[in-house]
Write a structure and sequence with these properties.
alpha+beta; Jelly Rolls; seven-stranded antiparallel β-sheet; disordered N terminus
Length: about 260
C-alpha cells in the first residue's frame, strides 16, 4: 500500500494523474467476492466462506464467518462482532419497506472458536453501498428454549451497523428494548419473516400469526439498500427459500391499548 501511494504521488507530479488508493482498494476487494447461485438467486460472499450443498435432501446456501477476513477477539466483542460478514443477494439494492422471509438452520462449529457461541444467524437489510451501514435482526437459537427466562430474553437481537451494536444497545437503552424471546433452537429449520415499515420492523417465527419481536424505532441512517444472510462467530448457517416483497410505506396505526395502561 505504501508503494502504491508513492506511485500515486509520482503519477500526479509527472503526468497530472491523481489516483485514489483507498477507493481503488475498495473496488478491487468488492470485485473479488466469491459468488454463488442457488436456484434463481445469486449471492456475493462478504467476509464469509460458503458453498451450495445438498442438505437434508435439498440444495441450500451454507456459510460460515471467515475469521481471516475479519478476525475475532472475545476480549473486544463490540469491535469484532456484528460486522459485514454475510451473503449479499445480488440484483436488489433498493429494499426500503416490505417483507423478507427465509428458512434457516443453525448449528455450532465443532470445535467452536468461542465457547459462548449461540448459533448467531439472521438477516441484514437496507445494506448501504460498500457495506457502510445496515439494519439487522438475528437469532441466538441456543437460548431460545433455555430453562430460564433471562436467557430466553436474549434469543432475538436487533442492531444497526456501525453505531448501534448489541453491547451499545444494552448499555444505552432500557433493558430488552432491542432484544427479545422466540421459540427457536439449534439444529432445526426456522422460518423467519420480517415486516419492515418505515422505522419499525416486526419478526414472525415459523408461520405464527403474531410477531414474536418488534423494533419500535430502528436506529440506522440508511433507509434503502440490499438484503443479506448473516452468521457470526462459531455458527454454521444453512439458508433456503429466501423470499422478498417490496411494499409501499403503510400509515402507522394507533395502538388500541397504551403500554402504560397494562
Amino acid at each position: 500500500m505504501k508503494t502504491l501511494r508513492i506511485l500515486s504521488i509520482c503519477l500526479f507530479f509527472v503526468f497530472g494523474i491523481s489516483v485514489d488508493i483507498n477507493a481503488q482498494h475498495a473496488v478491487n476487494k468488492s470485485a473479488n467476492w466469491k459468488r454463488l447461485t442457488l436456484g434463481k438467486q445469486t449471492f456475493d460472499l462478504h467476509n464469509v466462506t460458503g458453498e451450495i450443498i445438498k442438505f437434508q435432501g435439498k440444495k441450500v446456501l451454507k456459510i460460515e464467518r471467515d475469521l481471516r477476513a475479519i478476525p475475532f477477539d472475545e476480549n473486544r466483542l463490540e469491535a469484532t462482532v456484528d460486522e459485514p460478514h454475510y451473503s449479499k443477494l445480488l440484483g436488489l439494492d433498493d429494499f426500503e419497506n416490505g417483507t423478507i422471509e427465509v428458512k434457516m438452520y443453525s448449528e455450532i462449529q465443532n470445535p467452536s472458536p468461542y465457547k459462548p457461541a449461540a448459533g448467531f444467524i439472521g438477516v441484514y437489510f437496507r445494506i448501504a453501498e460498500n457495506d457502510a451501514g445496515f439494519e439487522s435482526i438475528y437469532l441466538r437459537p441456543k437460548v431460545g428454549r433455555a430453562n430460564n427466562q433471562f436467557a430466553r430474553n436474549h434469543a432475538v437481537q436487533y442492531f444497526s451497523y456501525p453505531n448501534y451494536k448489541f453491547e451499545t444497545l444494552r448499555k444505552n437503552f432500557r433493558p430488552g428494548a432491542y432484544e427479545g424471546s422466540a421459540p427457536v433452537a439449534l439444529n432445526e429449520w426456522i422460518t423467519m419473516r420480517i415486516e419492515v415499515n418505515g422505522e419499525t420492523a416486526e419478526m414472525y417465527i415459523n408461520g405464527m400469526n403474531y410477531s414474536s419481536f418488534i423494533v419500535d424505532k430502528m436506529l440506522g441512517n440508511n433507509k434503502k439498500g440490499g438484503i443479506g444472510l448473516y452468521v457470526d462467530i462459531g455458527t454454521i448457517g444453512y439458508f433456503k427459500d429466501l423470499k422478498i416483497s417490496k411494499k409501499a410505506l403503510k400509515a402507522k396505526q394507533e395502538a388500541s391499548e397504551k403500554a402504560n395502561d397494562i
